[in-house]
Specification:
99 residues; four-stranded antiparallel sheet; globular; 25% strand; 3 helices; three-stranded antiparallel sheet
Length: 99
């Protein structure tokens, strides 16, 4: 079965505890907003799959987001610091983690 128990998602050295909405990198907690948390969780749940900006925005922001889609990059990469490198931008399509 999956490592970390049913309510944990693990990607490399990132660990998500979904019942508490917590994210840890190397066992150090990263404080994220709910949107940032949901964004990271969605990417990890779909690792190796390219998610379009619209899929991400629809899932995380919950509406057809017509604004600046670079919000996604900014939100995640700044907060994750060095771990932001795990998130790959697929030009003209969207994002993926892993791969």
């Amino acid at each position: 079965g999956p490592k970390g128990g049913p309510s944990e998602l693990i990607y490399k050295n990132l660990r998500i505890r979904s019942e508490r909405h917590q994210v840890f990198a190397d066992d150090e907690e990263i404080v994220l907003t709910l949107k940032e948390y949901e964004l990271l969780k969605y990417l990890i749940e779909n690792q190796d799959i390219v998610l379009t900006r619209n899929q991400i925005l629809g899932r995380v922001w919950g509406y057809d987001f017509d604004g600046e889609t670079r919000t996604v990059d900014v939100h995640i990469r700044q907060k994750l610091g060095e771990y932001g490198k795990y998130i790959e931008t697929v030009r003209g399509v969207g994002y993926r983690i892993g791969g």
